[in-house]
Prior knowledge:
Elements: H1 29-53, E1 57-64, H2 70-77, E2 86-90, H3 96-99, H4 105-108, E3 117-121, H5 130-133, H6 139-143, H7 145-158, E4 161-169, H8 172-184, H9 194-200, H10 203-216, E5 224-228, H11 232-249
Parallel strand pairs: 1-3, 1-4, 2-3, 4-5
The structure holds adenosine monophosphate and magnesium ion.
Amino acid sequence: MKHYRIKPDTNVNLNDWAADDHSAFKSNKQDANAEQQALNRKLEQLQELLYAEHKHKVLIVLQAMDTGGKDGTIRRVFEGVNPQGVKVQSFKAPTHDELDHDYLWRAHQHVPAKGELVIFNRSHYEDVLVVRVHKLVPDEIWKRRYEQIRDFERMLAEEGTTILKFYLHIDRAEQKKRLQSRLDDPTKHWKFNEEDIHERKLWDEYMQAYEAVLSKTSTDWAPWYIVPANHKWYRNLVVARVIVDALADLKMSYPEAQQDLEKIVVE
Ligand code: AMP
Ligand code: MG
């Protein structure tokens, strides 16, 4: 999975990253299911340990273009995980109250506490993505945010948060297919948003904004992974594998009993 992890200060050009790559797992779509289930079981165990140990905090950031698969990834990768101790926080267009504060305020309120795993479905990165592309603030304001975000995440990491950031990378042709299927399939109509058609016209601007994010904010304490996401099965395997490996690296253990349990009799 190292291959997908962006080293600090890399100049990322997304044209160099194949969105339909599926080379790191030997599985094909058919075998992927068994592999996914094995990873899900491991994640389930590690998450229980995280909760029981009550020491580490885990923050997972998911970013992608519209139809990129953020919701599907959450559904599949966290299937079977105990909902206690796991939270999903989605970031929509900011409210008036949120806009009256600094842009990191709303993100900071939802970062994980000890023993928790929090998934950001979109994140503070929207403040250098949609905000940049739509010129919602002057250039000089979004330009200084990369450094602010690096510092914010470094503080979280120093305070005990493991941060993993995933950019789910689909290409333009795949987005076309997925938008079309939202139009064609009545069970997907609810997902269709006319704004997505307008956003799609800004594809190149978004790619540029994502390249800046990936180039400037992948750090040792909060790395970005570029996940090839045209194939949903592969995307899920990559995300699950990275999370499982990161949690295993924490070398967690169940806490020691606080008393001499052998002396206790259950009548
Ligand atoms: P969805 O994730 O499809 O429900 O859409 C959420 C929408 O909220 C997307 O169009 C985002 O671009 C938008 N959004 C999220 N964060 C911000 C932000 N900080 N400023 C402006 N729009 C945002
Ligand atoms: Mg949407």
